[in-house]
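dude i think i finally got it to work??
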Amino acid sequence: MLAYAKSDIGKIREINEDSFVCLPPLFVVADGMGGHVAGEIASKMATDTLRQFFAASAVIDDPKHLLEQAIHEANAQIFQFAQQNSEYAGMGTTITAAYIQDAKVYWSHVGDSRLYMLRDGRLTQVTEDHSLVGELVRSGSITAEQALTHPHRNILTRALGTSEQIKVDSGITEWKAADRILICSDGLTNMLNDQDIRGTIMTGDGETGLARLIELANAAGGLDNITAIMVINGAA
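look at this
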């Protein structure tokens, strides 16, 4: 297993509110939101919680359950912090996490960061966007291409820390030889379509692929922070 991670502030933002964990076999991307560096704090609280949960577990026999448990704990901590500190009211973060074990990718997800699987040249979005435009795409009201420029593309329908309880999407995906997974914030996917992403990460090493993705996203405007992790099953 080869793993690579890269984060970039983009062309517009003054700070990077994304956080990530790339500690094989645990991979996490969180994209924070809220003013006065609240998003930066929320995303870091989320990634720290997941890292600590897995570091404290000597035996991990149910990664999916542990991911869900950690995300619920992160949600509680962020929500409580915002309640106790009025200047951080409304803070929150996305979270997309994967744990690879026993030829399986265990994943959990809240928000509009994404987990993709690239297998045999085909790129599949594994997670579902918890966003207004995501719902519009799924209902057939707009196309995926129209979603890239929709004026309300940044409105989330689900995020960590914004309510006391949170619904977490989770699943298990096979992990086959030569598979590649990409976990990324919407700073990438709002700038590039799936065809662009697929063409960039299909071949070659992950480090070069991630650098090229960020270069392309910035060239397209770099309107948000850009964070991505690529994991490759086998040599590249």
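The CA atoms of residues 3 and 190 lie 23 Å apart.
im so relieved honestly
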